[in-house]
UniProtKB/TrEMBL annotation:
The lineage of its organism: Bacteria, Pseudomonadati, Pseudomonadota, Gammaproteobacteria, Chromatiales. SUPFAM superfamilies: SpoIIaa-like (SSF52091). It holds the Pfam family SpoIIAA-like. It comes from Thiolapillus brandeum. This is STAS/SEC14 domain-containing protein. It comes from the Bacteria.
Amino acid sequence: MPAVFESVLDGTLVFRVSGKLHADDFLSAWHAGEEQIREEGSICILVIYDGFEGWDDDLIGEVSNPGFMEEQDDLIEKIAVVGEERWREPTELFMLKGLRKAAVEYFEPGQESLARAWLEA
């Protein structure tokens, strides 16, 4: 599966993403973590790209819905993404960095501990 809800620790949900991400895979992983989000009240998200190959157009249409983004942003404080440099700009555009309530930062492979520290700060 290209997107997996991996764990929650100290208010941080971890998602591991590989391959090409499709809307149904994203939504399945999101719903798996959504219960934890509601229990925590507000959370941070760590996304780890592991062999990531991009998004399908169906996913972009699904999450670019302003209602989806607004509903989720009320629950999310920060989003950190760890992945190859080539995915930085597309990820920041996809996550609407600077246009949403949740802060979004991108980290390169090997910087997972920095990403976690940023989420905890």
